[in-house]
Amino acid sequence: MDTEFYRIKRLPPYVIAEVNAMRHAARQAGRDIIDLGMGNPDQPPPQHVIDKLCEVAQNLDAHGYSQSKGIPGLRRAQANYYKRRFGVDLDPESEVVVTMGSKEGLASLATAITAPGDVVLAPNPSYPIHTFGFILAGATIRSIPVTPDERYWDALEKALAFTVPRPSVLIVNYPSNPTAETVDIEFYRKIVDWARENKVMVISDLAYSELYFDGKPTPSILQVPGAKDVAVEFTTMSKTFCMAGWRMGFCVGNPKIIAALTRVKSYLDYGAFTPIQAAAVAALNGPQEFVEENRNTFHKRRDVMVEAFGRAGWDIPVPKASMFAWAPLPPQMAHLGSLEFSKRLLTEAEVAVAAGVGYGEMGEGYVRIAMVENEQRLRQAARNIKRFLASDAEERKVANG
Description:
Blueprint: H1 6-9, H2 15-28, E1 34-35, H3 47-57, H4 72-86, E2 96-99, H5 101-113, E3 119-123, H6 128-136, E4 140-144, H7 150-162, E5 169-173, H8 185-198, E6 201-205, E7 231-236, H9 237-240, E8 249-253, H10 255-268, H11 274-285, H12 289-311, E9 324-328, H13 338-349, E10 351-352, E11 354-355, E12 366-370, H14 375-399
Parallel strand pairs: 1-10, 3-4, 3-5, 5-6, 6-7
Antiparallel strand pairs: 2-8, 7-8, 9-12, 11-12
Helix pairs in contact: 2-13, 3-11, 4-11, 5-6, 5-10, 12-14
């Protein structure tokens, strides 16, 4: 039997999984690993959300198949969130669909709108589903920079001029995973104008919409007049409400794209467990103090991490948003590359980070640091790193005579 499956051959080894496996083995051996690798929130959701899950789960009628597109109350709650937060009107029936996390939603959307050979413009570095969801659907990826400067717009124009067939989809992700890059509403205005002029669909991933710092809320592309002509946007409960394991997300915007996603999902799933959807309604419609508290928690962690790591000898650029920092390798260790550096940091400093190359070749030379440990653990990580860097410097000194 031939087991060289076509789509599997298009997937490279998952670099991120290699360091994850090392971390797991180290913990199994009893080592105290400070895990700053996976973006897994360490706080529980609000108590009233957990209570609603338990309450609805007691209903004996709540355990059958749910609705693939999401229960009506949840779609209305998401539409209300967009109205409150962004001033954007959405029709819950035609412009909102519930997904089992944004990752599943992006993969299903790729299946819905991609034909073999289509060209998709995706950021590099980027979260892997932004590229491999479309690769699995048969598309070809053309990389564009993440930083929204002149190089970005130049890359878009070159893609139009020199790509055959012309690109059909553009993916934008701000605040960016992994780089924490942010944009303003003027950037989205230019994107919408460009997409309408060139007949390109835009997929915005806004997973970190509520993890913004320094009092600068992140915008939505749908705030731009006419954006719904060309764009859809994904959001998720994972980071905003610390509900990562609940797998609850949304896609909103252009009704034709939403209809395509909804139709594909109807063949693939029966929707999330109804009590989870009901709890998500409680999160979106209920008290919102938790959202600000969660934001403040990550803001404090950011400040502690940047200060402590800097004193340890590793300067970390200050992220403007998200739960991540995108850090260049310490200069004396840049020659190692991001994967080897991550392995050494794990084994010698007991600190796990994500190798930048796992997010695309343009991520080489960086690591992603997730602020998912408390402030005390971040300071402990900094002390470990300081000893690691000092030990390496001493070894090189001895080696050089």
